[in-house]
Every structure is written in C-alpha cells, then in structure tokens.
UniProtKB/TrEMBL annotation:
Coiled coil start-end: none
Domain ABC transporter: 2-240
Cited Pfam families: ABC_tran
SUPFAM superfamilies: P-loop containing nucleoside triphosphate hydrolases (SSF52540)
Top-level taxonomic group: Bacteria
CDD domains assigned to the protein according to its UniProt record, in alphabetical order: ABC_Iron-Siderophores_B12_Hemin
Name of protein: ABC transporter domain-containing protein
InterPro entries reported for this sequence: AAA+_ATPase (IPR003593), ABC_transporter-like_ATP-bd (IPR003439), ABC_transporter-like_CS (IPR017871), P-loop_NTPase (IPR027417)
Keywords carried by this UniProt record: ATP-binding, Nucleotide-binding, Translocase, Transport
Length: 261
C-alpha cells in the first residue's frame, strides 16, 4: 500500500506545483491519474516512487518512508516508465531490457542467472520486442522504443508498476496488447498498477479507480464509473463530453465533443 500525506512540491521554490495532496493506493488495484496538461500528474508519480523529494509531507511505501529507502530498495518494489525515457546510449534492445534486472543484483558486477534470463525473455514476449533484440534502441521507431522501455519495467518484476502515459507512441493494437498484459499481471499476480492516462476511454476500460488532478490539487477521485460523469469531467478539463454506457462491457464510453462542429 502507498500512502501519501499532505505532500507539496515546488520546482522553483516560488510556485506550488503540488499542493498538500493526501491519497492512498491499495494493494492490487489499478489507479488511473487523469487531468489537464500541467496539473501535476507526472510530478505526483515521481514523488510516489521517490524520484522527487516533496517539499512538504511524506510518502509511505508498504509501511516505510520512501525518503528512508535506498534507490535499490525502491527499485525492487516499483518499476517506473517515465514520460520521456532517455537513450543517450546506443544499447541493443535486449541489453536495454536487461537493465531492468539491476534492481535484483547484489554486487557492482552482477552475475546473470537463469531467473534473470527468464524474466527478460518473458518481458520481451509480453511486449512483442523479442524479434528486435539485436537492434539498437536509437535505430528503432518511437513506438518500438516505448515497448522496449515497457519490457524493461516488466523485467524488473516488481509488485508496483507506475507508467506515465504507457500508450505514448503505440498503435491501437499494441496499446490494447500492453494494457491487457498489465490487466493480467494485476489479476494473476496482484500487482498494483498506476498509470497516467490522457485517453479517458482507456482509463474507463482498465482502471478500478481514478484520481483527477487540477492545478496541483485533487479535483475528483473515486471508482472509475463515478468519476466519469459529464459534469465532473467538464469541471476537470473545461471542455464538454458526452458519456454513454456500453451494455456489452458495462463500461462508460466517453465521446469527445468539438466546440466548432
Ligand atoms: N522541470 C520542471 N521545471 C519547472 N517546472 C516544471 C517542471 N516540470 C513540470 N513543471 C511544472 O509543474 C507543473 C506540473 O507539471 P507536471 O509535469 O507534473 O504536469 P502533468 O499533469 O504531468 O502534465 P502533462 O499532462 O502535460 O504531462 C506544471 O505547472 C509544470 O509547468
């Protein structure tokens, strides 16, 4: 379980980018974080996993203060896909996925076990990256690279998986394939998933609960169906939506509305 209490964050020490946010994420649930650009979604995610230290408040991960945990201790618990993954090096795809196993090595020069090899191969199968294992990551497409970084997260085999816009650059088939893999991991291995979503239909389909941020504060939160209401979404995004029920899936369908058509 992750519990954060009164966390605030400022990038420049002047403006408040997250404002006294308190929230809990339960074991085994899929939380979607939604909200307009600049509302604090990525900042919140980075604080939850210890990448950013809050200027105020604290985060507890399974009963321990994140700020008291080493990077390796956190990496054994949380795999993170950031919005912008850097690849200033030109590693091969499989070498890049293997970096996900560093969290589990106990020495500076880690030995490679069959457990590591299996984890990497499974992660590459899950993401459909196995056929490009010898390609260099600076010589593949944006969507292929996104799947490589997702594979790196899966290879880390952590109980928590945090993904900032996982469908970035992915075509529709790969979007569904990856999100289905995550749903299976949640159901079968009780993993806790936290994803930032801009596509509200994906949030509707996959998330158990939604947290809507606006101006660095919690604007709405609750189970997915209760958050996906026309009034609440209009207030969150300052634009209108139509919401229908899909009788086949029992999920809400969000119809985007143009202001000029
Ligand atoms: N590196 C930075 N330096 C200064 N301010 C930043 C930095 N990164 C983000 N901010 C500011 O912090 C606030 C929250 O940004 P954040 O990236 O968390 O928003 P977001 O909800 O993830 O946005 P998006 O949907 O555009 O990805 C914004 O006002 C943004 O301008």
């Amino acid at each position: 379980m992750i519990k954060c209490q009164d966390i605030s964050y400022s990038y420049d020490g002047i403006h408040t980018d997250l404002d006294e946010l308190s929230y809990s994420i339960n074991q085994g649930e899929w939380l979607g974080i939604i909200g307009p650009n600049g509302s604090g979604k990525s900042t919140f995610l980075n604080i939850l996993c210890g990448l950013f230290k809050p200027s105020k408040g604290n985060v507890m991960l399974d009963g321990e203060f994140v700020t008291n945990m080493s990077n390796k201790q956190i990496a054994k618990k949380i795999a993170v896909l950031s919005q912008q993954n850097s690849y200033t090096y030109s590693y091969e795809v499989k070498e890049t996925v293997k970096l996900g196993r560093l969290a589990h090595s106990n020495s500076f020069f880690p030995s490679w076990s069959t457990i590591d090899e299996t984890a990497v191969n499974n992660a590459m199968m899950m993401t459909g990256t196995e056929k490009m294992e010898k390609s260099f990551i600076n010589e593949i497409s944006g969507g292929e690279r996104q799947r490589v970084f997702l594979a790196q997260c899966f290879a880390q085999e952590t109980p928590y998986i945090f993904l900032d816009e996982p469908s970035n650059h992915l075509d529709l088939m790969h979007t569904i394939k990856i999100l289905d893999v995550l749903k299976e991991l949640q159901k079968q291995e009780n993993k806790t998933i936290v994803t930032v979503f801009h596509d509200l239909n994906l949030a509707s389909l996959y998330c158990d609960r939604l947290l809507g941020l606006k101006d660095g504060k919690i604007y709405i939160e609750g189970n997915t169906d209760s958050v996906l209401s026309e009034d609440l979404l209009k207030g969150l995004y300052d634009t209108s939506f139509q919401i229908l029920d899909n009788p086949e899936t029992n999920k809400k369908v969000i119809i985007y509305k143009s202001n000029v058509l």
